Amino acid sequence: MCRPIHIDALASYWHRLCDPALDENLLWLRVGSTSEKLLYLESGWGQGDILELPLHVGIIILHPLRLEILAYLDRLLCKPVETSLQNSLTTASPERKAHLSTVINLGQKMADFNLEKKYQEQEETFFDDGREIELLHFIYSNPDIETIRNSPTKVLAAIDNFARTKKYLMNVGEDKGRIVADLIAEVKPEVMVELGGYIGYSCVLFGDAVRKAGGKRYFSLERNPEFAAVIASLVDLAGLSDIVKVIVGSSDVSIKRLHASGDLKHIDLMFLDHYKPAYTTDLKLCEELGLITPSTVLAADNVIAPGNPPYLEYVRSSVEQKKRATKFGGTVNGVDSRFADKTANQYLKREGKAQLDETRVGNPLLIYESKLVNSFEPSGVPDGIEITRCVGVETS
Questions:
Q1: Residue 99 and residue 290: Cα distance in Å, rounded?
Q2: Which pTM was predicted?
Q3: Taken in order 270, 285, 320, 308, is the CA torsion positive or negative?
Q4: Distance between CA atoms of 7 and 46, rounded to whole angstroms?
């Protein structure tokens, strides 16, 4: 069964997400199941045109220049397009080929997602509306709660069950979580720090992995005290209280306090999954405090969806580039203006306008090697983990 949808509606949605001046370069990526061809729509669609698409096919709206996902429109119904991206590669310029190849890889990842494990749809309001406490009641009212106790795997399964059958949760999920868990097994960190714990999914998954790898401490830094209480409850249920310590407060203040007290002297592995504009400023803070040294590894979530241009620019820059770097887009209320308003204002209602120290310079002499590992959100939206290794320090 299909229903028509007008290009006008998509264009209007686009204008709410991105600079209208970029409309000529608008890129919509259509992705279906593994049996579907990967097709695309790019320019050429006029006002009043109508598209139709089967129910299981969605549309991803990408930023045309940075290839960040601006929106994933599920269950939009659109008319199939004849030309595939693969065919376009044969006549494209070298720059265009690189651009299209990236889109193809992104789409193939989406097509390979196992829909059986997909979370509930992400609503307009998708956190801090009481669902976090509902999750606790859901888990602790399980008649098999005693079989869940002291089992990190079963606690994670219970969280996934809630997110798949009840309400969406903004967790790292199985797929991206596996990338970081494998990294933990490789790095074997004694001390791992997590920025942004939410309800504790990553804390349980990675805390368990750190313990199995012989690690001593997993710090979970969470600003929201209610979320931190949920984390602590589920960490206790999973039997991880001996290795996991939940720290309540803003990430920068918590990092400074842990360092000043001597509890945090070095970071072996850090997982960044908190307020997106704070990734770079908090990394620079850790650099200035001497917590990042050669052998430190960083794993940053959500670098594709919703995207994090300032962070990727920083960790992918050479020492010389960092030394002479000037800000690309300036700041608005202490937040880099390259972030969309929705991302910059994600916590506005509860915490007010963010005030980040954008003057922080970090330690530009640190040498990083960084790469993106593509994956997807538990909702099926393509995303990735940026894995960055500090491999040296340049002598000035």
A1: 38
A2: 0.77
A3: positive
A4: 7
**CB-based contact 111:30 (threshold 8 Å):** no
Strands 335-336, 331-332: pairing kind = antiparallel
Amino acid occupying residue 147: T
Q: Which residue has the tokens 């069950």?
A: 161
The string of pLDDT tens digits covering residues 231-284 is: 999 999 999 999 999 999 999 999 999 999 999 999 999 999 999 999 999 999
CA 338 – CA 352 distance, rounded (Å): 19
What is the C-alpha separation between 281 and 273, in angstroms, rounded? Answer: 13
**Residue-range domains of the chain with CATH:** 116-393 (3.40.50.150)
Q: Which residue has the tokens 């080929």?
A: 97
Residue-wise pLDDT tens digits, 182-236: 999 999 999 999 999 999 999 999 999 999 999 999 999 999 999 999 999 999 9
Per the rule left: phi > 0, alpha: psi between -120 and 50, beta: everything else, 333 is left
Closest to 155 (Cα-Cα) out of 120, 195, 118, 206? 206
Of 46, 39, 44, nearest in space to 83 by CA: 39
Distance CA 315, CA 337 (A): 18
Amino acid type, 169: L
Q: Do 58 and 71 meet the contact criterion of CB atoms below 8 Å apart?
A: no
- Render pLDDT for 2-15 as a digit per residue (tens, 0 to 9): 444 455 555 555 45
Contacts of 161 (CB under 8 A, 6+ apart): none
Question: Do residues 276 and 339 make contact, with C-beta atoms less than 8 angstroms apart?
Answer: yes
The label of the residue with tokens 């007290």 reads 261
What order of strands is seen across the sheet that includes strand 297-300?
A: 244-248, 217-222, 191-195, 269-272, 297-300, 382-393, 366-376
- 306 upstream amide cis, omega within 30 of 0: yes
Q: What is the DSSP letter of 118?
A: P
Residue 108, classed as helix, strand or coil, is helix
Sort 124 into a burial class: Cβ within 10 Å, 0-12 / 13-18 / 19+. exposed
Residues pairing with 31 in the sheet: 58
Which residues are within 8 A (CB) of 291 and not within 5 positions of it... i.e. 6 or more apart?
255, 259, 264, 265, 266, 267
